[in-house]
Amino acid sequence: MKIKNIVKLSVLCFAFGNLSAQNPWPKATNTAQPWTRWWWMGSAVDEKGLDKQLTTLSKAGFGGVEIVPIYGAKGFENKYINYLSPEWMKMLQFTTDKAKSLKMGVDMAVGTGWPIGGPQVNENDAATKMIVQTYDIQPNEKFSEKIVLKDEKQKNLKTTKLDIVTAYNEKNEAIVLTDKVTQDGTLNWKLTSGKWTIYAVFIGKTLQKVKRAAPGGDGYTLDHFSPDATKDYLKTFDKAFGNSNYGVRSFFNDSYEVYGADWTANFKEEFKKRRGYDVSQYIKYLVSDDESEIAGRIKSDYRETMSELILNNFTDNFTNWAHSKNSKNINQAHGSPGNLLDLYAAVDIPESETFGSTKFDIQGLRRNLEDINTKEVPDINMLKFASSAANITGKPLISNESFTWLTEHFKTSWSQVKPEAEQIFLSGINHIFYHGTTYTPADVQFPGWLFYASTNFVPENSLWPNIKGLNSYIERTQSVLQSGKSDNEILMYWPVYDQWASPKGKDMAFKIHNIEKWLHPTVFYENLEKLGKSGYSLDMISDKMIGEAKFENQNIQVSKSGGSYKVLIIPQLNYFSESTLKNILDLAQNGASVIFQSEPKDVQGFFEFEKRRNELQSLWAKIPFQQERNLKSATFGKGKIVLSSDVEKALEYLKIEREKLTDTGLKFVRRKFDGGKYYYIVNHTSKEINQNIPLNFIGKQMALMNPENGDFGVAETQNNSVKVQLKSGESLIIKASETPDSSISKWKYIEKTEAPIVLNQPWQLTFKEGGPELPKSKTLDKLQPWTNFTEDASTESFSGTGIYTTSFKLNKKADDFVLKFDKLYESAKVIINGQDAGIVWSLPFEINVGKYLKKGKNTIQIEVSNLTANRIRYMDQNKIQWRNYHEINFVNIDYKPFDASNWKVQPSGLDGEIQLIPVYFSK
């Protein structure tokens, strides 16, 4: 090598960060790497297969697996292993031992399929519902009918029993008659005059069974409101596990999808203890469609009681049980008929989920309508319920079941996954679980075993060769987002009583699948959207959390290990607890700042509501509001209370600063660590951002860190702003430190580019791996997708890796060169002069390659991996059997039988121009 080339190479290395510099990236653990849900179909696993797949996952950059046994594949019944049997536990032990040797972690579900349940759930512990029968009695009519259960499905159950009998006359006067009914259903009650309606409530069972259950896991769904049912259920695990946790890091419970479970055996007694009155006298208002105020109040109390029961009797017991095994627990609270914030906060790792795909403005991002579910779109504010609970209570990890039904099967590219992952990160979540990966025995042919509702993160996916690009990006990002603490400045109260006070319906489940009904129409949500876009960072808080909060060190804090906040916002609402208002005034008395968007109108619930309403009004009257320009404010003790319909004006009044960087369209999430802060910044706009952006925190040194390739360097700063260059679809991390590190080189900003060198010479196309067969090699006059060669049927059906190779002469010098792809279907490994130059997998499809180039002749290989769709299309057209599962076999994104035979051929390979762009850095 000539001396000048050595000098040039050293300059190019300098452009990518001084290799001797102290690396500003946090040390990554396996929790920083993505994990994946690992379905064991029929639990038909063996040591050889487990070893092979765990090793494959580890090499691809996965940090752990989450075992969920489900239904099995047909023809493999003799290999099924019953859940929690000695043989199953042996496979679990092998898995955790192998994972440990690979520095991976293992979680497992406390059940098969979902929701939890199984053969250990006897009739008594099964999900419970109320069955209501009414009897109309006309004036002077003798009531001789027996009050017995008529439901044929329930008659043979041993646990059904009469729970409440209440009669109402035309004046709505009630008489509780429960103790007047004999065992055979005879009513011993002397009728008084007038027309009466009798409401009889029986304790029944939903009869719901576990969905998608694995062998040994079939059975009734659990009664989540019964402490005995929860304890009985977990005894099966105690028996299987003994005194060991078998190396399981965390036990997982999937989302609450129990249908019709609106009662439990001792609900009546629990209600009276918690709400202060007997619901029997008001049962009509609970079970009927009466839309009166009293019905709303009774239903609010009912829903609050259900919330407390699932929290105390299931979630808390689940957490305590996991801790007794020296493990953690993960719980998906969404879907539960309870306060999601409290339920998420009651576990070690709160977990949300995303379902469907988001419309982003990123240039070139594909989102074909025929491949997506247009009814459901992930919502960042729904995700914040989980992250808020964790941030407030100091849980270091917040997980997410990610990319469920992102697109149609076999049509998801890694470039489509990236912005969805970024949106998850922007919500405050920092521990992604892919949904997911299916265990496949070594002797099962392509495409292996597959789960019916997922993005296929499986080794058989033709995109697998380049998954390390996506996984490395997630690992670097999560290493930062798992460092320090969340740095949100605002707490926003969730007015759950406004939801619970609705006189419509009975039980109320807060699902991710119906947020358009319970979340989107609220002023609360409107505030979340507006404040987020304006550059404020916030977490949601519950009544329970407000009751636990203290004002210390000039901030509101619920937990010493949790976040600290500058202000509490109470959005416009109708119903508010007088005890919560008292707690808020106590916070203000000690120095807290509070914003009310409106005056609370009324108290929730029925018990002594007039007395409590007067107390609410009395407490409110103690606030000495003074009219200012466009709001009211009051000094209250050491604190400040502001009343304003315009929350942003109130925040400005209290001098709570927003991050003005969002004015550019950039999005961010912020973390604080000892001695500084991290900003994770994403450009989901269609434009390039090349400017100084303002930040509220500027340290003595600002380092830029690229999570896609690991580059870092010291940024240019000016007047509380940092210079960033972000193309559409790119992201960046800014580390603001109070302690400078002189060993870190300057960040290399692109000052100018020159006219690109277009690689429009002939290319050689060969095929490396994939199927159904490798197409023949081709010489191309110009770049084009291999699917363009319609005369060769094998190219249209091929899914795998095609290699585009060419040589070119380079005489130009530059600080660096950017290899830019016009159209890439879908990801590529770039090899220049025999050296691995990196993976191109996300938009914009570009990669810096200067340090691999030389003066004169250069050879470039681009190994392109396409979607699996074309091969599946071929298999369906030729009726080649590949899906053959028990229970649900295989469905498309609309849950109809899957058939790819009519799909269009998906373009595969390279198209358009490939440019080599000379770039010059600012000095």
TrEMBL record:
Lyase recorded as keyword: no
Residue ranges of domain Beta-mannosidase-like galactose-binding in the record: 803-884
Signal sequence segment: 1-21
Keywords assigned by UniProt, alphabetized: Hydrolase, Signal
Protein origin, superkingdom: Bacteria
Keyword Transferase belongs to the record: no
UniProt-recorded Gene Ontology molecular function terms: hydrolase activity
Pfam families, per the entry: Glyco_hydro_106, Glyco_hydro_2_N2
InterPro entries assigned: Beta-mannosidase-like_N2 (IPR054593), Galactose-bd-like_sf (IPR008979), Ulvan_degrading_GH (IPR053161)
Transmembrane spans: none
NCBIfam families, per the entry: rhamnoside_JR
Protein name: Glycosyl hydrolase
Protein source organism: Chryseobacterium ginsengisoli
